Every structure is written in structure tokens, then in C-alpha cells.
Amino acid sequence: MDLFLRDRVILVTGGSSGVGLATLRLLAGEGALLATCARDGERLQKALADAGIAGDRVLASTCDVRIPQEVAALVAAVTDRFGRLDGLVNNAGQSRMKTLEQTTADDWRDELDLKFAGVLNPTNASLPWLRRSGAAAIVNVNAILAVQPEPRLAATSAARAGLLNLSRTMADAYAPDGIRVNSVCLGLVDTGQWRRRYERAGTVHDYATWQRDLAADRRVPLGRLGTPEEVAAVIAFLLSGRASYITGSAIDVGGGVGRGIH
Predict the structure, then answer these.
(1) 143 forms bridges with which residues in the sheet?
(2) At how many degrees (to 10) do helices 228-239 and 18-29 cross?
(3) CA separation for the pair 56, 201 (Å, rounded)
(4) Can you name the residues that pair with 142 across neighbouring β-strands?
(5) pLDDT score at 192
(6) Res 261: pLDDT
(7) For 68-201, where are the E strands, in sequence order?
């Protein structure tokens, strides 16, 4: 199925690993023109090269999405290179494994800054160009935590809920400009974050067994973790012309773990 993404210019933040990298790989296969960023530029370049994403159809930059000036410079570089911008995937983020009592005031500030500034800065810098596109779409990568908070992720759960609310506000605000805004809400997805937690756990089980036990503990009906590629497929669809009448939606990609209604 043609997603009508060939030669569309799409910016994906947080492209050095996991869902961001998988999304870039899929979009490259669809013929899109790509831009991406990460705080560690050297790691980003290596990840793109290892994934076979290189050449004059991708622009990779070092950028901290929490800093408006760096984001503005990134968007300027993208539009100087390609002359337009058609899509934005706000993907930069991480989880903070702390209970409510363990979460400090600085933790709250850092978490809220990343979740909100990490979306607002790229969006605000991109808006003038997205308004010119005629087929613009924004996808905010969120988590099922937004509607199903996890006590061990107190600040992250709260920030994710706020981002879900913000995403719907964005969809309403930008619809008159022809810009669609949707969310993809992740459950347990096999990214580097889970690999690091496995290594810290010091378990005698292999990674595959540990994943299955984790899925069972978290009551994932499909009995496994998802893959970044499974998330990327949903992101690509929402960016595409095939989703031209979808905005303000939040799609769970979590193996059925979501028990909230949104």
C-alpha cells in the first residue's frame, strides 16, 4: 500500500535508537526525505550508518529539544536543505523510574520540561513550514501511562497524561491550518531502555525469558514486548495521506495492555 510519503520532508526527533530509529528506517523505505536529531550527534551518525540510512536524503544534527534556540537552528537547517517541512514526529523522551516519595522537585521539573518542551519547541519552530505543506501531520510519541499511571513511574505518568491532553489541544488548534495531530501511546516496547534494565537486574534468565516474565507480570494479553518496528508502522500511517481524516486520536501500541478509555 502506497503511503504517499515519497519526497515528503519529515523531521523525527530522538532518532539515535529505538522507536525513532525504526521510524526513520521505515520512512526511508517509503522514499521520504528525512531529518533527525539527538543530543549525542556521534551516536546518531553511527546509528544511521548502521541502519543504512545515509546520503543526501537525510539530515542529522546534534540538538537538545529542550532548548528553543537549538531547535530553531535545526528546523532552519532542514528547510534550507529541503525547502519545506511536511511532517514532525516528536519522539524524544525517557522514563523516570521513581515512586512519588522518591521523586524530588528537580525530578518533577526535569520530567515536565522534557515531555512538554520536547514537543512544544519542535512544534512551534516547525509550524510556519507545516502550514505551507498542504498535507502536514504531527505525531506525538506518548505512552499508555498517560491514562494508566504506574506507581513506580510517578512523574513520568503525570507528564504523559499532560502530554495527551496537550496533543488533543494541538489537534483542535491546528486543524484549521490543515495540520493533523495524533498520538501513539506505547506499552512495553523492546528498546535499549529495557535492555539496560535487564542488565541491571542481574537475573540468571536470558533476555527472551526475562521479557516473557515481564510481559506476564505487567499482564500484557499478547504475552510479549512489542518491537520498535511495530510502533514505527503506526507512526508512518498517521503521517501518511492514508490517515488524512484522522486527527486528535491516540492509538495504543501495547499488546492489549491498555485498560483505560480515551
Answers:
(1) 186
(2) 50
(3) 42
(4) 185
(5) 74
(6) 55
(7) 87-90, 137-143, 180-186
Residue 17 · residue 66 · CB < 8 Å: no
Q: Order the strands of the 33-38 sheet from edge to edge.
A: 58-62, 33-38, 9-13, 87-90, 137-143, 180-186, 250-253
CA atoms 229, 259, 107, 168: torsion sign: positive
67-77: pLDDT as tens digits: 999 999 999 99
**Calpha distance 254→185 (Å, rounded):** 8
Q: pLDDT below 50 — which residues of the chain?
A: none
CB of 93 within 8 A of CB of 19? no
| Boundaries of every domain in the chain | 9-187+226-250
Compute the distance between CA of residue 145 and CA of residue 27 in angstroms, rounded to an integer. 27
- The C-alpha cell at 239 is 503521517
Residue holding cell 546520503?
55
Residue 67 near residue 121 (C-beta atoms within 8 A): yes
Q: What is the CATH number of domain 9-187+226-250?
A: 3.40.50.720
pLDDT of residue 128: 98
Angle between helices 154-174 and 118-133 (to 10 degrees): 20
Calpha distance 83→101 (Å, rounded) = 49
Say which residue the cell 533527525 belongs to: 36
Contact 228, 21 (CB under 8 A): yes
Residue 83, by phi and psi: left (phi above 0), alpha (psi -120 to 50) or beta?
left
Count the neighbouring beta carbons within 10 Å of the beta carbon of residue 68: 14
What pLDDT is recorded for position 211? 86
Question: How far apart are alpha carbons 94 and 164 in whole angstroms?
Answer: 16
Q: What is the three-class DSSP state of 104?
A: coil
Measured CA to CA, the distance from residue 155 to residue 110 in angstroms comes to 10
